[in-house]
Design goal:
Number of helices of chain A: 4
Strand order of the largest sheet of chain B: 1-2
Mean pLDDT of chain B: 80
Oligomer: heterodimer
CATH topology of chain A: Methane Monooxygenase Hydroxylase, Chain G, domain 1
Strand content of chain B: under 5%
Shape of chain B: globular
Number of strands of chain A: 0
Largest sheet of chain B: 2 strands, antiparallel
Distance between the termini of chain A: 47 Å
Order of helices and strands of chain B: HHHHEEHHHHHHHHHHHHH
Helix content of chain A: 55-70%
Low-confidence stretches of chain B: 1-11, 422-439
Order of helices and strands of chain A: HHHH
CATH architecture of chain A: Up-down Bundle
Low-confidence stretches of chain A: none
Number of domains of chain A: 1
Helix content of chain B: 55-70%
């Protein structure tokens, strides 16, 4: 754990700086109330009414997020494999080729079904 | 074999974790100060270089060569009103810049700035790196992912359409390019046999991985530009479409924090590229002939020299390339970078296995390659015939300049149906467009 504790020191300094900046900007900046200033900025026109509850987000973002999870987990499998590759030799190579081929089938399926198309 | 590897790794990290509290605090504070100064310098440098590329002068009034311009801008931002929009989610709105800034700094905890040195005026010997861990590069990637929360929450909590779109775009873009970035690093781990940054630098004593793993390096460099939302991939902040993207509603020092996070992240990906591909703090070739080049505090100079080369590359891109369209950009990440990284990983692993001691039966290797090749080709060919026929070139419609009710010039490739002067001669001037069409 000794290797990880110094990270906390750096995080604490960064957090202290960030909080100090936010508190200071309230103290140093002027405050002049203006109703129009607190509206959402849309280049000067009346702001678009926002749907209650935040509205809906296009489904393509969720597809991207799910694909990201698939490939991120693949990466998590690849990292320890790469580090221990010399110890495993040819066995590791064959295993990982099979694994990558399995993911590649899913990848090609997604591609052909249009999951990678944007709009 | 694996047991000896473990022992070796444990030995190599023995330099870390033994620092006393004041040494840790000193190094953490130094990293923080260096990063803030680097950011101030980078902003000034970017403005100067882009100005020079555009035949302007750039900031040159505050301090020598305008070096204090960024500091002046920071003070000005501090004196501006801190606006919280009416529609904003107040707590998350304040929290988002903090979430964006902390990971940007924390990622530098495992970046090796130099070898072991003696702290001046003391007998303490310590590595020029806050800490190292067996999974250091994974730590950087994990921490960088936390930074995405700051951006997406900032965009969401503003309660503004532009901010929300910018935040969504940004998160989709960053996670897409993080996959390509992560895959590009696998080959480095394969050759270094470690994920600890100091060991990867040590393994590049003789040859830098940027030279032997060129495809990985190229993919990483492209992905790092996408990961940091920089031009030509700066779609989350496309001024022409989204005003300022996720930070449209932010003002004063909260905006400055986002700005700081972006520039520190630029430094982080550049430092990671230096560490993994350009030999970290090792001196470049002509200098490395001198024995003292890799000792004492000199390596800090080589390290930041390489980082600044990458920063210059970022600036050069911004001064040269126009912004990509979003669908092209996502397609490039998912359809080009990811499959090519996967193919490259398989190729590197095959070559590595072939050169390992003990020798292997090359037939198995060829079988594996052939199987993968057949599989890939087959998958792409099956159903290739289902592709609908390209519609035959449609007969170009005769162009009517007055179809929309008022005259418009023809698009490229469209020929005017009739000569305008002939219509002019048959209709009286001032008549309505409808009567012109009937004539």
């Amino acid at each position: 754990m000794e290797l990880y504790t110094p990270v906390i020191a750096l995080a604490a300094i960064a957090a202290g700086f960030a909080v100090f900046s936010i508190v200071m900007s309230v103290a140093t900046g002027p405050r002049r109330y203006n109703r129009a200033k607190l509206d959402s900025y849309e280049c000067g026109i009346e702001p678009t009414p926002q749907p209650i509850g935040g509205g809906r987000v296009p489904v393509k973002y969720f597809i991207t997020a799910m694909l990201f999870i698939v490939f991120d987990i693949e990466i998590i499998f690849l990292y320890p494999w790469a580090v221990a590759f010399d110890a495993m030799g040819i066995f590791g190579l064959v295993e990982m080729v099979l694994f990558i081929a399995t993911v590649a089938i899913a990848y090609v399926y997604v591609w052909r079904r249009g999951g990678l198309e944007w709009d | 074999m694996s047991a000896t590897t473990m022992v070796r790794a444990a030995d190599d990290l023995s330099a870390f974790g033994g620092d006393s509290v004041w040494v840790v605090l000193l190094k953490a504070l130094l990293i923080f100060v260096v990063l803030v100064l680097l950011t101030l310098f980078n902003i000034w440098w970017e403005r100067r270089v882009v100005a020079r590329m555009q035949h302007r002068i750039g900031p040159n009034m505050h301090g020598p060569f305008g070096l204090l311009q960024s500091l002046a801008d920071g003070v000005k931002l501090a004196l501006k009103e801190d606006i919280t929009p009416k529609a904003a989610d107040k707590v998350v709105f304040v929290l988002a810049p903090v979430i964006a800034v902390i990971p940007a700094f924390v990622a530098w905890a495992v970046i090796p700035l130099g070898p072991e040195v003696r702290i001046p005026f003391t007998d303490t010997v310590t590595p020029l790196q806050l800490t190292d861990m067996p999974v250091a590069v994974l730590f950087v990637l994990a921490v960088a992912s936390v930074g995405i929360y700051g951006i997406v929450l900032g965009g969401w909590s503003s309660g503004s359409t532009y901010s929300l779109l910018g935040g969504l775009r940004s998160s989709a873009q960053m996670i897409s390019y993080e996959v390509a970035m992560g895959l590009a690093l696998v080959a480095v781990f394969l050759y270094a046999g470690s994920m600890s940054t100091s060991e990867i630098v040590e393994a590049q004593k003789d040859v830098w991985y940027g030279f032997i793993l060129v495809p990985s390096f190229v993919i990483y460099v492209i992905a790092m530009v996408g990961e940091t939302n920089r031009a030509p991939f700066d779609l989350p902040e496309a001024e022409g479409e989204l005003v300022g993207g996720f930070h449209t509603e932010y003002s004063s020092l909260k905006f400055a924090l986002f700005f700081l996070a972006e520039y520190v992240n630029m430094g982080t990906v550049a430092a990671l590229a230096t560490t993994l591909f350009l030999g970290g703090w090792h001196a470049p070739w002509p200098i490395s002939i001198w024995d003292g080049a890799n000792e004492g505090y000199w390596p800090v100079l080589w390290f930041f020299g390489k980082v600044l080369c990458f920063i210059f590359f970022f600036i050069w891109l911004r001064g040269t390339l126009p912004r990509l369209r979003y669908d092209q950009f996502m397609a490039f990440g998912w359809k080009v970078l990811i499959p090519s990284s996967l193919a490259w990983i398989v190729a590197v692993a095959t070559v590595r296995a072939a050169t390992l001691d003990g020798g292997i039966d090359r037939r198995y290797m060829l079988y594996a390659i052939a199987a993968v090749a057949v599989l890939m080709i087959g998958l792409f060919l099956i159903g290739g015939g289902e592709k609908e026929e390209e519609p035959a070139e449609a007969e170009p419609e005769p162009f009517d300049a007055f179809a929309g009710g008022y005259p418009v010039p023809p698009m490229p490739g469209q020929a005017p149906a009739s000569h305008p002067t002939s219509t002019m001669s048959t209709t009286s001037p001032g008549s309505s467009p409808e009567s012109r069409q009937e004539s």
